Amino acid sequence: MNGIQRYILSGLLKAILAIASVAVGVVCLLKSLLFIGYTVSQGLSVGAYLYLILLLLPSLLLLVLPIAVFVSVLFIYGKLTSDSEVLAMRACGMGNGSLARPAVAMALGTTVMAYAMALYFIPVSFKEFKDIEYFVQVRLAGMVLREGQFNRLGGKVTLYMRDRTSSGELLNVLFQDDRDPLVSRTVVAERATLNRTGEIYKLQLETGNVQEFDRNRRKVSLVYFDRYVLEVDTGELLGRGEREQGIAERHIGRLLNPPTATHRDRELRSKAMAEGHQRLSSPLLCLSYMAIALAALFVGDFNRRGSTRRMIVAAGIVAAVQALHLLVINAASLNPAMLPAIHLNAIVPGLVAAMLLYRGDRRVRRSSSRNQSSATRASSLLVP
Q1: DSSP code, position 20
Q2: DSSP label at residue 222
Q3: Rg (CA), the chain
Q4: Cα–Cα dist 284/110, whole Å
Q5: Which of 80, 117, 143, 263 has a Cα-to-Cα distance from 359 of 20 to 30 A?
Q6: Per-10-residue mean pLDDT for the chain, 384 residues long?
Q7: For position 242, what pLDDT does the model report?
Q8: From CA 171, how far away is CA 192, in angstroms rounded?
Q9: Nearest CA among 296, 317, 318 for reference residue 307
Q10: For the packed helices 46-55 and 57-82, what is the interaxial angle rounded to 10 degrees?
Q11: What per-residue confidence (pLDDT) applies to 338?
Q12: What is the Cα–Cα distance from 365 to 355, expressed in whole angstroms?
């Protein structure tokens, strides 16, 4: 690159860094509002809260980067055009190809970054996010018992305590046990002592009763006790850290060739393939949006009063392409025959814009060569 191109590239890099930072910051702020109540209710620390927000950055960057490329190219080249710097560069012999080279370099670098996010960082970060969410919502919620609330330990055991003394004794305890499919047990006690070893709860109850309901015979029995001991394995109730892996957590190989072993896998096959093709095509929007911005500014006659109307038209085209991209992805998740349309929607607008730039460059070169030849013939006629 020459000095002029490096000057343009420097402006583009500063612009895209600022635009991407602001966009990601705004989206993170909106996302964080959803997590504030969640983290406070679950008692998470500020560090854990910030870590959850950080895990969402790869998916946010994949969404923001193409738009940031478009806005930065439109802003920098629009400013150069309004300041007549592009006109001076053309006078120095720079065509559309030379002027567009810094934007192409920035868009290529952004595309590589977007592919890194789509193919590696998104599944890794989203898996970590869902693991933490599962632990907090299911595992931690099942191991942290609160006074005055019905604490669910899985879907079959519920523990209630009215109060907890400073020595750790539980007062006015109710224990509902539906682990046995034939018998439902309700244990009520005045006091209880709770000990935990790992995921095993040992509940020693005093002065209460056990009510058993036989589901087959539809009979209720009542037994009073002075001391009663219960053991609950929360790992067995909640599942030992196992959960179903979501589509966003899968790597590209499992998305393009999804498993079909179970009925659930076959149901998600179309969605998984649409997600895989979306990850392959979305980074290409960086190049397409860059070409659309350049075509809006460079194709056609130069206007000294600015190119606001062209910028608005380019923004409308990009908004339409982005909306169509989302619609095609949703359609492909229902009908796999629409999968090629995902790539066509990401590539064709950029190719059309690049073709317009190339044709405009050729027209400018032909015009300049024609003017030079006319000037040469005129000068030869003036020479005696």
Answers
A1: H
A2: E
A3: 33
A4: 10
A5: 80
A6: 85 92 83 65 66 85 93 91 80 81 94 94 88 63 66 75 83 87 90 76 87 89 89 61 73 88 81 93 95 87 67 93 94 92 94 86 55 44 41
A7: 55
A8: 7
A9: 296
A10: 60
A11: 93
A12: 15
218: alpha, beta or left, given left = phi > 0 and alpha = psi -120 to 50?
left
Residue 43: which region, alpha, beta or left (left: phi > 0; alpha: psi -120 to 50)? left
Residues 10, 13, 17, 18: is their CA dihedral positive or negative? Answer: positive
Asked whether 315 and 323 are in contact (CB, 8 A), the reply is no
pLDDT at residue 13, rounded to an integer: 93
| Residue 78, both tokens | 């629009």
Question: Does residue 35 contact residue 128 with C-beta atoms inside 8 Å?
Answer: no
What 3-state DSSP class applies to 359? helix
Residues 6+ apart with CB under 8 A from 27: 60, 63, 64
Question: Tokens in use for 361?
Answer: 């460059």
Encoded tokens for 342: 């995902």
Predicted pLDDT of residue 237: 53
Residue burial 122-133, b: 16+ Cβ < 10 Å; e: rest: bbebbbebbebb
As a whole number of angstroms, the distance between CA 93 and CA 29 comes to 46
Q: Give pLDDT tens digits for 309-360.
A: 888 999 999 999 999 999 999 999 999 999 999 999 999 999 999 998 888 6
Q: Name the residue among 137, 135, 141 with its Cα closest to residue 153.
A: 141
Neighbours of 316 (CB within 10 A): 10
Judging by DSSP bridges, how do beta strands 200-214 and 183-197 pair with one another? Answer: antiparallel
What's the token pair of residue 238? 């909640």
Nearest CA-CA partner of 211 in 176, 261, 164, 253: 176
CA neighbor of 71 nearest in space, from 232, 278, 281, 285 = 285
Q: DSSP characters for 159-201?
A: EEEEEE-TTSEEEEEEEEE--SSSEEEEEEEEEEEEEEETTEE
Q: What is the distance between the alpha carbons of residues 184 and 176, in angstroms, rounded to a whole number?
A: 8
Residues 6+ apart with CB under 8 A from 140: 42
Q: Give the strand order in the sheet containing 157-164.
A: 150-153, 157-164, 169-177, 183-197, 200-214, 219-233
C-alpha span between 295 and 314 (Å, rounded): 9
